[in-house]
Amino acid sequence: MRVLVIGSGAREHALLLALSKDPNVSKLLVAPGNAGTAKLAEQHSVDVASGAAVTELARKVEADLVVIGPEVPLVLGVADALRDAGIATFGPSAAAARIEGSKAFAKDVMAAAGVRTAHSEVVDSPAKLDEALDRFGPNWVVKDDGLAAGKGVVVTTDRAVARDHAAELLETGHPVLLESFLDGPEVSLFCLVDGTTVVPLLPAQDHKRVGDGDTGPNTGGMGAYTPLPWLPAEVVQQIVTDVVEPVAAEMAKRGCPFSGLLYAGLAIGAQGPAVVEFNCRFGDPETQAVLELLDSPLGEALNATATGTLASLSPLQWKDGAAVTVVLAAENYPGRPRTGDTIVGSEADGVLHAGTAVEDGSIVSAGGRVLSVVGSGADLAAARADAYAKIDAITLPGSHFRTDIGLAALEGRITL
């Protein structure tokens, strides 16, 4: 099976690494890829937002399966163009990708499916903002109603901060979603979904804020770990039964069945799981940790999803132990990152590339989240030690990373 992966981040690097271990995958291709993916796959240039361009490339390289990593091409309908051309594609249609592309659409689906989530209100005019803000608090959650790459959310107890963020979004023409605050630890649960068939992967926990102790602004994700020692298996099943399956059924009922990876971000509070958000693709950086522990052939699983045969897929098998991802970020991230610096140590095992490029034969930084460093071990402590030993061997001027990925769980500070 010839597999073309679309995207350029550490998520795509992780997908390629896992696919390379599948004996049924005979050829790997990636577009556009990065400085690290060149070791695993034949690299091609493409406009990932163009369905016509991606389809032309898939035909040219004779891809048997196309795996779309990022959300933007999915929301723009690239998967539809590929399927219209008769090419098996892992990733939802544009209609189904609205589960991430429009938070208002996602809220409507959840309401119809009877799924617990935060109370919300869409504000589309500055004139309505103050009155709407008065209906929320003392914790304000302000979101960009569209795609924001994980960075369009502000959670604050300061009304002025909430108002400033909302006003900034409205000034740029983006509707604002105000939500009630959901308490409890957060969980990311990835599920392969083929219509109404749902197959969960291991639960993970992301660390969104830039600084240790969950301080500073939200980012695209600074690290993750899996599995979650504090989360009982029955709660994972509850999420599948009470959240993912009803949403999948509701989307099928609406004529936009989901096919691909449905990512449920949840808060596990006193009343049980409640949805924070849905994404329409593999999440980054959780994917890097989750796939590290996958023991089943990934290509087989993705192809079964893409071809509508997920129900007959053998149960997924997982390695024992734990995995931890730590993101190495460029100076000034999540602001405008410093780029163009030479990276030393980025070719070691367990180092996945995201914002990298090759200049004059050297690997240099080319984005905000530059590398994802993945450690594994017999337990969470061993996986953390492995990840941090690897990241300590990497040099990038001005770079920074969190030192506490998975630490709260390790120290027993997360309880239900």
From TrEMBL:
Pathway: Purine metabolism; IMP biosynthesis via de novo pathway; N(1)-(5-phospho-D-ribosyl)glycinamide from 5-phospho-alpha-D-ribose 1-diphosphate: step 2/2
InterPro entries with a match to the protein in the record: ATP-grasp, ATP_grasp_subdomain_1, PreATP-grasp_dom_sf, PRibGlycinamid_synth_ATP-grasp, PRibGlycinamide_synth, PRibGlycinamide_synth_C-dom, PRibGlycinamide_synth_C_sf, PRibGlycinamide_synth_CS
All residue ranges annotated as the ATP-grasp domain in the record: 107-307
Keywords from the named record: ATP-binding, Ligase, Nucleotide-binding, Purine biosynthesis
Keyword Nucleotide-binding: yes
UniProt cofactor(s): Mg(2+); Mn(2+)
Reactions this protein catalyses: 5-phospho-beta-D-ribosylamine + glycine + ATP = N(1)-(5-phospho-beta-D-ribosyl)glycinamide + ADP + phosphate + H(+)
EC number: 6.3.4.13
GO biological process: 'de novo' IMP biosynthetic process; purine nucleobase biosynthetic process
SUPFAM superfamilies in UniProt: Glutathione synthetase ATP-binding domain-like (SSF56059), PreATP-grasp domain (SSF52440), Rudiment single hybrid motif (SSF51246)
GO MF annotations, alphabetized: ATP binding; metal ion binding; phosphoribosylamine-glycine ligase activity
PROSITE patterns on file: ATP_GRASP, GARS
Enzyme class: ligase
Family: Belongs to the GARS family.
The protein, known as: Phosphoribosylamine--glycine ligase
Biological source species: Rhodococcoides kyotonense
Lineage of the organism: Bacteria, Bacillati, Actinomycetota, Actinomycetes, Mycobacteriales
